[in-house]
Amino acid sequence: MVRVANERFGEHSVHAIRQEIRGQAKACLMEKPDVNLRRAHSCGAGMANAVVARLKQEILNRTKFRTFEELITDSIAMATATAAPVEHGFKDRPRITSNFANCAQAPVARIAPLRSRTVATAESPKVTRGTFVKGSLVICSAAMAEQTLEAEAGSSSKTQLEALPFKPEGYNFWKWRDHKVHYVVQGEGRPIVLIHGFGASVYHWRYNIPQLAKAGFKVYAMDLLGFGWTDKALVDYNSMLWRDQVADFVTEVVGEPAVLVGNSIGGFTVLLTAATRPDVSSGLALLNASGQFESADSSEDAKIMEAVDETVVGRLTTQIKTAFRRVAIALTFWQAKQPARVKSVLQSVYKDQTNVDDYLINSILQPTRAPNSGEVYYRLMSQMLSKPSIDLSLNTLLKKLECPLLLLWGDLDPWMGATKADKIKELYPSATLKRLQAGHCPHDEAPEAANAAIVEWMQTFGQVPSA
User: Fold this and answer.
1) Domain boundaries defined on the chain
2) From the centroid of its chain, how far is CA 24?
3) Which residues lie closer than 8 Å to 3 by C-beta, 6 or more apart?
4) CA distance readout (Å), 72 to 63, 111, 202
5) Which helix (H) or strand (E) holds 97?
6) What's the rounded Cα separation, in Å, for the pair 19 and 13?
7) What's the whole-model pTM score?
8) Name one Pfam family in it (predicted).
9) Per residue in 296-322, pLDDT tens?
10) d(Cα 283, Cα 198) in Å, to the nearest integer?
11) 172-295+390-458 has which fold?
12) What distance in Å separates the CA atoms of residue 293 and residue 422, rounded to the nearest whole number?
């Protein structure tokens, strides 16, 4: 890893980080009267190796990977970007097929060394450090379950469903904090606001927006800041920023409290919004939402980390930690750029693998062509690896929640399976739990069932739309 980092990233390499740490450690040790230069050099090198190992482990702890190599090679877990139908309005277009019935049968891909993968060809120009900056892919590194549930391959459940027409220029734009925010609106009636997951956009709701609008609702879908067709703003990304965006959107654009619906990190965003801004939410639907439960050991872990930071590790500069993180994120990004890997990961989280079509795979790269996408990717990933400054556990947010809650869960999700839905139901007993035989994105994999569940649930409270 050090050799690869040195070759590709120069001053941001792990070697440079280790050298800087060694120098600082030697300087600290030389201040002691009983330490000579040779001993300081030896101890400094040992401390440098220990610090680099600790920084690696810190990243692994935040992402729940077992090894640093696993972090690199499995970095596009949870990439659920939008599929953008370019030529068809209906689901009758060609499919990408797989030779394997499920992910468990697929052979393990062996990745060639980076040097051999960066030889320039007519089809693939030579990769440089600038490639990582200019063409970053917005994805999410996440913990994979120990076992992926096997699902039988079946026919698509949305063959005849009308899809939201794809517009390369986008639909509507709302000015928020001097940034352009992209959104779609269809239908008339009670308002519903759909919020996508990490790396996705409004087009991930392609089979939900038209059908929910026909069912008698006014359906909004919005791209969060940094995603889709919304501006790639150079801001400090965090959950509270997206909470404010959703709340202001409901207030300024929708004009009345709405039912908030979110998938993956979009689910966590709408939960945070409904729990802390009850004035904008009349109901909440979570589709395989992200977020963590409280840990009984969290306070003890904090004490241990605080004690460690009082050692020489705590004297590391912010620049060193940032440089190391940039190396790690850039390496994971390189792996995320491989089309075969994108296809493999998406197939592993869709029970019906035929839903992973060529448009879905190709659309993952589309938002990355916008200016600032590389820096936005780094900031987003850094935010996800950072510990929140306030308590945003699911336990805390569910205690504050006061509106009707629907848990629309794909039980075959290898990341956030059925047990997570059960735990949320336990913490919020009045919630309605609807299970679907689908993966991480049940709204896109099984849209007919998902749409029906949302409509049925919304008829249990508030005004029922006329048929």
Assistant:
1) 2-73, 172-295+390-458
2) 36
3) none
4) 11, 11, 28
5) none
6) 10
7) 0.66
8) Abhydrolase_1
9) 555 544 554 455 444 544 545 455 566
10) 22
11) Rossmann fold (3.40.50)
12) 12
